[in-house]
Amino acid sequence: MAELICENLVLGYENTILIEDLNFEVNKGDYLCIVGENGSGKSTLMRTLLHLQPPVKGRIAFGEGLSATQIGYLPQQTIVQRDFPASVWEIVLSGCQSRLGHRPFYSKEEKQLAEQNMKRLGISDLRKRCYRSLSGGQQQRVLLARALCATEKLLLLDEPVSGLDPKVTAEMYRLIAGLHKEGITVIMISHDIQAALQYATHILHIGQQVFFGKTNEYLDSPVGRQYLNMEGGRQN
Amino acid sequence: MDQLALYFSYPFVRYALVVGVLIALCSSLLGVTLVLKRFSFIGDGLSHVAFGAMAIASVFNLSDQMLLVLPVTMLSAVLLLRTGQNAKIKGDAAVAMISVGALAIGYLLMNLFSTSTNLSGDVCSTLFGSTSILTLKQMDVWVCIVLSVVVVAVFVLFYNRIFSVTFDENFARAVGTKVNTYNLLIAIIIAVIIVLAMNLVGSLLISALVIFPALSAMRVFQRFLSVTICSAVLSVCCAASGILISIVQGTPVGSTIVAVNIVVFVVFAIIGKIGGRS
Q1: Domain boundary residue, one of A151, A168, A193
Q2: Using the beta-carbon criterion (under 8 Å), do A52 and B170 form an inter-chain contact?
Q3: In a domain, B197, yes or no
Q4: Is the pLDDT of residue A9 over 80?
Q5: Enclosing domain of residue B69
Q6: Cβ pairs bridging A and B (under 8 Å)
Q7: A51: pLDDT confidence band, cut at 50, 70 and 90?
Q8: pLDDT higher than threshold 80 for residue B170
Q9: Which of chain A's residues have a Cβ under 8 Å away from the Cβ of B278?
Q10: Is B112 on the interface with A (CB under 8 A)?
């Protein structure tokens, strides 16, 4: 049984269909990168996986004791957050909100969990700092720590390195790879095809042609070769 | 000082002070959330709706205007906060539209059907705060105390959720927090506060009570909790001193409170600049 199965998924908005007949599954311990051109529906797919919007058709099923609300989500930054007065501690702790149930306040265990995840990502000493005063890389770590408070199993990362400089980007990828090694399943939307090939175990390419499979199969597939040539040409 | 002591011997002065302070406290609590959600003008929009509703109520000669004003304002609050998601007319435009629309209709109705001899006086006092804060009955004070206790209790109990929903709605929804319910809750509370506050500062100046303390606190403090507490304290102090000044100097209550708030904002902005806003 896979952790996440998508069957005959049709995605889009009211009258526009972006993706048709999408089938893929994610097993425990996978590292899946979702790649594709802008506007191909990557973000829509992510929003659908998170139940932020319903699929037009098809089914998303969760397995292995994973429920839809146990996903650790790392969203792209919003404008509101850029000048939001909140300390690192307050933000990381808010990752525990799904554990609250009907209680109004966080318990000792939840505070410990937040503490552990801050240590795990090396941001314990930023605890009292204000979120808006942090660098881009530090802010991503804070949001990643919050995501880890919400899950022990599956992380969904929406372009986690956009806007970061190359050095910080490499650190971020190492950090995520480390979490993956600890046994957390990772699903990541990415523009960065080189990093996707380096780290991911599986690739889901969406667009006019759809590919889903292991990373080395992607390299040999027509879709993969075409996309890599195009991306490679752009970078050179 | 003697003069103040004399004023305090009158019950209506004490009532005004109690009600003013409570309203200021409640409005400032949600102010932080509204400012951060980019809904600063919602107070303004809703108070104009309340003004329109009040006009309709007086046209129909309703004995208790609150029965109409409160539900109408709540409904508008719900509609306005919902537009944040999928509306064809986006947040600020929707607020502006409803706000001026209700104002115009309200004034029109009052003009067409008013039985009062002093129409412009009535309108002016509804817009800029009337002296009715100084003519409160004991019953009004109790209603205000009960509602304030409810608002503060709800805010404290749901503080963690309100923070989550304000900081990152998508994340909150993804981990299963009932974001729509909490947005609804915020909308209803803000509607109650605005209807309460109309007596104090009037329709046009309500936004000031909601946003100024929050903005001042944000100049200096960096944590959500400290911003919230600071804005509550500021709001209470500004309202109390504003009411006292207006009683002693005979100035209009609403605008005096707002003026005190502006002074405090300037002071805090300067402190924030000097402090370096780390």
Answers
A1: A151
A2: yes
A3: yes
A4: yes
A5: 2-273
A6: 88
A7: confident
A8: yes
A9: 130, 133
A10: no
Q: Note whether residue A101 is domain-resident.
A: yes
Could you give the CA distance from residue A69 to residue A72 in angstroms, rounded to a whole number? Answer: 8
| Average pLDDT of the residues in A57-79 | 80
Interface of A with B in 57-116 (CB under 8 A): 68-71, 73, 75, 78, 80-81, 84-87, 90-91, 94-95, 97-98, 100, 104-106
Residues A27 and A131 in one domain: no
Sheet (strand A71-74) strand order? A71-74, A154-158, A185-189, A31-35, A202-205, A211-214
Domain boundary (A127, A151, A175) is at: A151
Residue owning tokens 């808010």: A94
User: Does residue B183 form part of some domain?
Assistant: yes
Domain count, chain B: 1
Rounded to 5 degrees, φ, ψ at A158 are -100, 100
Determine contact, residues B144/B23, Cβ cutoff 8 Å: yes
- Same domain (yes/no): A82, A56: no
Q: For position B53, which CATH number holds?
A: 1.10.3470.10
Strand partners, A13: A16
Looking at this protein, which amino acid is placed at residue A26?
A: V
A146 interfacial to chain B (CB closer than 8 Å): yes
Domain that holds residue A206: 1-66+153-236
| Residue A49 CB neighbours (<10 A) | 25
Q: How many CB atoms lie within 10 A of CB B125?
A: 17
Residues A177 and A194 reside in one and the same domain: yes
Residue B278 pLDDT > 50: no
Determine, for residues B174 and A71 on separate chains, whether the beta-carbon distance falls below 8 Å: yes
Q: Are residues A175 and A142 in the same domain?
A: no
Comparing CA positions, the residue from B58, B243, B22 lying closest to residue B140 is: B22
Q: What's the rounded Cα separation, in Å, for the pair B122 and B118?
A: 6
Judged by average pLDDT, the poorest of B15-29, B89-103, B170-184 is B89-103
Contact between A51 and B38 using a beta-carbon 8 Å cutoff? no
- What is the ipTM score, two decimals? 0.86
- Whether residue B278 lies inside any domain: the answer is no
The pLDDT tens digits of the residues spanning B47-105 come to 888 888 888 887 777 767 777 888 888 888 888 777 655 555 566 777 788 888 888 88
3-state class of A11 per DSSP?
A: strand
Please tell me the total count of domains within chain A.
2
Q: Are strands A211-214 and A202-205 parallel, antiparallel or unpaired?
A: antiparallel
Measured CA to CA, the distance from residue B195 to residue B97 in angstroms comes to: 20
Phi, psi dihedrals of residue A153, rounded to the nearest 5°: -120, -50
> Residue A47, SS3?
helix
Range from A120-124, B139-143, B202-206 carrying the lowest mean pLDDT: B202-206
How many Cβ atoms are within 10 Å of B116's Cβ, its own excluded?
11
Q: Which tens digits make up the pLDDT trace of A120-175?
A: 888 989 988 999 888 888 999 999 999 999 888 889 998 888 888 888 999 999 99
Q: pTM for the full model?
A: 0.85
